[in-house]
Amino acid sequence: MLTGTREKAAMASATLPLLETLIGFDTVSRNSNLGLIEWLRDHFAALGVSATLVTDKTGTKANLWATIGPEVDGGIILSGHTDVVPVDGQAWTSDPFKAVIRDGNLYGRGACDMKGFVAAATAIAETARNAPLRRPLHFAFSYDEEVGCIGVRDLLTFLDTLPYRPAGVIVGEPTEMKIVLGHKGKRAWCCTVKGHAVHSSRAPEGVNAVEGAARLIAEIAGISAEVRRNDQPDDGFDVPFTTLLTTVMEGGMSTNTVPDLARFVFECRHLPDTDPEAIFARIQAFTDTNLATDRQRAEILFEEITNYPGLAADPADGFVAAMSRFACTAVPPKVAYGTEAGLFQRAGIPALVCGPGSIAQAHRPDEFCALDQLAACDTFLAQVVESLTV
Ligand SMILES: CC(=O)N[C@@H](CCCN)C(=O)O
How far is the CA of 331 from the centre of ligand 1 (A)? Predict the structure, then answer.
């Protein structure tokens, strides 16, 4: 039941019913997003806009690309991911996949991260359809962002085949509608240490995989402290240096067996200008020199599991400067979490992050987006569309 003035004002926009529909699709990354993406494709078709689906290899997931206006250079991309993080084990007040409005907020999984922006972008499509656009408004909706910015890579390959170049992209992750100009990059690896199992009473005859992993983990912590001491701090970030740490570990099978298998996951969240490859090379070198004796029989394998670059937007870029007139720059202007913006920038498309809601609400039970944030996003996007008519 909507009673307050704020609720009534928000209801006047098409964003709210769209957001309710989008939240209704359970697009946790392990599931297919096709139900949602095909619904959006049909919604665009009803507006007379033909959207292209860029499908993954399995055919169970897809990105959506759509354009309104002339197919020329200088357009603006509105970008959002359609997947959400799981709700497993979280205590929600109401069904996470059924949008509910309470106290001026809209609750549901993905309300701020980031179906709120996808809904607002879809709502503005109707305005754009009726506006005399001189440059295009593009829509880029991806899958599998939450598991390492996977889907958008195929979308970027597809963009490369198009005969026009957009001026920039707005990635609508939750920033409380402030313009964010930078974020860290991330690399993560899974390290498998294979040793040799014997009865633990005969320990010297075995190769202890857990001890090998422990030495490596301690070295990673040591390198982390050194990187922190030596990195030029970037005070634009709340954590102003590169972080390196082990996040998961497992190994061994019984109290009386020399363990022949250990596995751990470690990650590096690096400043945009720090080279994570050089950090990884140090870990590799330590492995080669210090674990060499063990390696005569032990095997150490590194598998990269996440890799996305940081974002360092140029405030003097024409697109970035123009967008900054419609919203204020966040203080600090950079965020610790990663987004697809770094990948757009690496593909040569100027990128910034700006979207409704707060990252503090993301990934939690009772995730919400404030209705006045959605309204602020509607206003911002109306200005974006307006800027494409001149
Ligand atoms: C699993 C993983 O690497 N997730 C990425 C995805 C970025 C989400 N915005 C991360 O933790 O940064």
Answer: 23
